[in-house]
Write a structure and sequence with these properties.
- This protein has about 220 residues and is mainly α.
- It has one domain: Cytochrome c-like domain (Cytochrome Bc1 Complex, Chain D, domain 2, Orthogonal Bundle).
- Helix content is about 50%, strand content about 5%.
- The protein contains 11 helices and 4 strands; from the N terminus they run αααββαβαααααβαα.
- The strands form 2 sheets. It has a two-stranded antiparallel sheet. Strands 3-4 form a two-stranded antiparallel ribbon.
- Helix 1 packs antiparallel against helix 10 and helix 4 runs antiparallel to helix 6.
Length: about 220
C-alpha cells in the first residue's frame, strides 16, 4: 500500500490539475470583501465552534490558497462535500463570487510570515511513520504550508479538531449530510484508524502557520 500511494497521487494530480485550470477565474479581493456577509458569522469569529457533525472549531481561512477555497466551494455546491450549511451558501454563489471571496480571504490579514522549509517541531516516531505512510508531504509540502499546487490547502497550524473531522469525512460513505468525495484523500484515509487520524491532526495543528482568523463584525 505504501508504494502505491505516490504513484496514485501523481496520476490523479495530472487529471485534477487539468480540471482546475479549466475552472480558473480571476478574483477581485475588494469585491470579495463586499460579498462575505455569509462567511463572517463563522469564519470571522476567533475560536468559533461549529456543532455539526460534531463540535469543532471552524477552519481558519485567512491566508488560505485562493484556488483551494474555490475548489472547496465548488465541491460543496456539487455535493461532493456534504454539509447542509456550506451547501446552501455555495449554492447561492456564482463562479465570480467564489473567485472574489477566495481572492479576499487569501490576502486577508496582510503579508504572510516566511515559514521554515521543514517543520522545526520534529514528529514523534509514531506520527513520523504515519506521515510517511500517507505521503502527506507529497501534496501539502514538507512544512505543510506550501502545497505543490494552490488547489490543495495549507494545513500547518490549522485547528486540530477541524482537521480530524475533515479527515474522517473523506472516509464517510452512505451519509446524506456528512462526507467528502475526493479520490486521493478517500484512498489515503482508508489506511488509517481514527486514533491515527487524530494523531496526525494534532501534530499538523502544532506547526507554525500563516493561517489566521481575522475578527470581523457583521455590522459594517
Amino acid at each position: 500500500m505504501k508504494t502505491l500511494f505516490p504513484a496514485m497521487i501523481a496520476l490523479l494530480l495530472t487529471g485534477f490539475a487539468a480540471a482546475t485550470q479549466a475552472q480558473d477565474k480571476a478574483g477581485d479581493a475588494a469585491a470579495g470583501q463586499n460579498k462575505n456577509a455569509m462567511c463572517i458569522g463563522c469564519h470571522g469569529i476567533t475560536g468559533y465552534q461549529a456543532s455539526f457533525p460534531e463540535i469543532y472549531k471552524v477552519p481558519m481561512i485567512a491566508g488560505q490558497n485562493a484556488k483551494y477555497i474555490v475548489a472547496a466551494l465548488n465541491a460543496y455546491k456539487k455535493g461532493d462535500r456534504k454539509h447542509p450549511t456550506m451547501r446552501g451558501i455555495a449554492d447561492s454563489l456564482s463562479e465570480q463570487d467564489m473567485a472574489d471571496l477566495a481572492a479576499y480571504y487569501e490576502t486577508q490579514g496582510g503579508p504572510r510570515a516566511e515559514l521554515p522549509a521543514t517543520p522545526v517541531k520534529v514528529p514523534g516516531p509514531e506520527v513520523a511513520e504515519l506521515l510517511k505512510k500517507g505521503s502527506c508531504a507529497a501534496c501539502h509540502g514538507e512544512n505543510f504550508s506550501k502545497p505543490i499546487d494552490g488547489s490543495y490547502p495549507k494545513l500547518a497550524g490549522q485547528h486540530g479538531d477541524y482537521l480530524y473531522v475533515a479527515l474522517k469525512a473523506y472516509g464517510t460513505q452512505g451519509n446524506a449530510n456528512v462526507g467528502r468525495a475526493h479520490a486521493i484523500m478517500g484512498a489515503q484515509v482508508k489506511a488509517f484508524s481514527h486514533t491515527e487520524l487524530k494523531g496526525l491532526s494534532g501534530y499538523i495543528a502544532s506547526l507554525p502557520s500563516d493561517l489566521k482568523t481575522v475578527p470581523q463584525s457583521k455590522f459594517k
